[in-house]
């Protein structure tokens, strides 16, 4: 990994907007799905995934076979991870509330779950049961009645057994063999087989991200996700072998993933760089991880801890690890990060898979204004207002004055007519 001084480095990363060609391709796919429905989905699945399907929806028989094919210990691990995720997200539940004033005014907020949600789960050659759990369980905790999953099939038309088991354990009854921008189109416009949803969540490639951007406004979306990223702050007490392993855990996602280490120790920087090279040699996904490290991997040497913290807040990383002697002492200084992992044993995969917090996180600096996926993404809030006679008498002329200040006479008269009657 390349090593350079932090001071003067430009390190903020912007979310990719995609190329004009990619955006045009996405718009074409969305229009095709909108106009042709299932016919488009079958055609596009054959074109992009190489699968010739007879049915888009996963059957109960396929789910039964998935359970039979998995080791019991694997199923137990999925269930325990699901329980941890559910317990964590239950703490995010918001309740409706009402408050009253002496003059009879009643104000409040009504919290209502969304009716339906579509969860996109990356797939094809890879399997991401963790993404199933992270996308569906917060929706279930929020009270969403209909939760559907779309994931690209393998060339033989199958879906990973672990994905199917995770979906079933989450209580999901609708699982569709659809990937890419066409899945976003199906959830947005609906087809003969897929009913439209109110919101689409979940990570995907650039085509999924661009498709979500295009349909926002017709449906809700959680966020526009970019390539995965990790940033680690380490002091002189950190173990280079641990740091290298954590940097590579992100690099193996894809060639566009970003892995950054910031340290105040030259020795830690140099030893970590050597460890990355050494550990790369035995990685099954070496080609991907190596390309990521070469393109987007860097070790910065900071002159001071303050300089390192400022850099972290500027990057606003998706995953942030603080591997220092007293990591909790630094927590208060962190303003922008999707997920914060504190201490040498809190490796990023702990959060990705098992601890409970969500791993669908803001990327590319969007942690400056965005949050991890959670229960709040699956609810909406309605304001409640009730004015009695005394309240309107006390506030009416003030309301009229504000309306006329904005040149909206009809607004003012709607109040005045009630005051005149009283």
Automatic annotation (TrEMBL):
Active site per the UniProt annotation: 318 (proton acceptor), 319 (proton acceptor)
Molecular functions per Gene Ontology: histidinol dehydrogenase activity
Q: Which UniProt keywords apply?
A: Amino-acid biosynthesis, Histidine biosynthesis, Metal-binding, NAD, Oxidoreductase, Zinc
* Free-text comment on the cofactor: Binds 1 zinc ion per subunit.
Q: Which InterPro entries match?
A: Ald_DH/histidinol_DH (IPR016161), Histidinol_DH_CS (IPR001692), Histidinol_DH_monofunct (IPR022695), Hstdl_DH (IPR012131)
**Which pathway does it take part in?**
Amino-acid biosynthesis; L-histidine biosynthesis; L-histidine from 5-phospho-alpha-D-ribose 1-diphosphate: step 9/9
> What does the entry list as the binding residues for NAD(+)?
120, 182, 205
Cofactor(s) this protein cannot do without: Zn(2+)
According to its UniProt record, the EC number is 1.1.1.23
Positions that bind Zn(2+):
250, 253, 352, 411
Keyword flag Oxidoreductase: yes
Q: Does the keyword Amino-acid biosynthesis apply?
A: yes
Catalytic activity, reaction form: L-histidinol + 2 NAD(+) + H2O = L-histidine + 2 NADH + 3 H(+)
Query: Which Pfam families does the UniProt entry name for this protein?
Result: Histidinol_dh
Q: Which residues bind substrate?
A: 228, 250, 253, 319, 352, 406, 411
Q: What does this protein do?
A: Catalyzes the sequential NAD-dependent oxidations of L-histidinol to L-histidinaldehyde and then to L-histidine.
What the entry lists under NCBIfam families is as follows:
hisD (TIGR00069)
Q: Which family does it belong to?
A: Belongs to the histidinol dehydrogenase family.
Q: Which HAMAP family match?
A: HisD
Protein name, entry field: Histidinol dehydrogenase
Biological source species = Pseudalkalibacillus berkeleyi
